[in-house]
Give the backbone structure.
Amino acid sequence: MGDFAFIIHPIELDDVFRKLKFMRNWPVPVSEAVVKALPPFRVSDITGVRSAHAETLGHFVSCPLTSKQMVTMPEDKVIKKIIKAGKVAEKLGAKIVGLGAMTSVVGDAGITVAKHLNIAVTSGNSYTVATALQGTKKAAQMMGIDIQQAEVLVVGATGSIGSVCARILARDVRFLTLLARDKHKLDHLAARLLKENGLAVKVSSDVKRCVQSADIIIAVTGSAEAVIDVKDLKPGAVVCDVARPRDVSKRASELRDDILVIEGGVVEVPGDVDFGFNFGFPPKTSYACMAETMILALEGKFESFTLGRELSVAQVDEISRLADKHGFKLAGFRSFERALTEEQITLIRRNAKRNEGKILSSG
């Protein structure tokens, strides 16, 4: 019996095939139908999560739907399946359950799920934002970008996550552009940043032009399709794509070897943690959304912490403080659901310098 549970799901059918190899040769529609029919189930126990102040146990619970199914199926059916996964967590004795990947995006981002469960629910978005910004700053440093001199762009700046990112970034950067469709909301946010931090920011709705000049991009739109054309990115640009669905197409890694696209930070979990399940990360590391659930369990804060689409700077600051208290820290980066090595980043930086040189010589 653990204090917490975390709901995971297969990102794509290949993730299912790794576990159920015999399905690999089946027709795709058949595989999708089988996945859709599977009930939620306990995947593994999580042990060894221990800080200087407390320790906790947990479980992974699967909600068997791929990302594509969560987007294309009727919303009410997807939410019902997430709730069933939450009920499995309840039966396992969890006092708080975290929503992983698309389960934290569907519908009203956890509010309806929480209403149907007798335990606390968190989407993990507060710590996801915190580590995304930490990761972006560290990635920029590794790419040789001075954040104080960099052109920083927030795409989707007027949304709940975007505005929080902009307000936190405004503490540390000098050149910030806010990009969104609604001019009135942009102007309102710009005025708020000027009042809070004394920073005068640019506002725009021209994605192509802004992307072409940006050194660092935080992408957090609610668009159903990719909004950033990777061909427009300057060599050496760092893009942190927090959006789900993505703002940067997965094809970016095929089209460009001179830009760094990250989704946020990989988090080192304190203690001798054993997840009992390989989700593609180095040992003892996790996604930030998973870590938020563990942090709250260690703190004994069994309350719904991050729900819905409204985030606050106070929430991000609070979960960052609790993460520091319990020894959680940034351990690396992930890109398109896979851990990214320092060697890969070094290669991207080298390619960027090569291509910058070509642009300069041709200009």
Residues 4-126+267-333 form one domain. The chain has two domains: 4-126+267-333, 132-264+337-362. The chain has a mean pLDDT of 92.
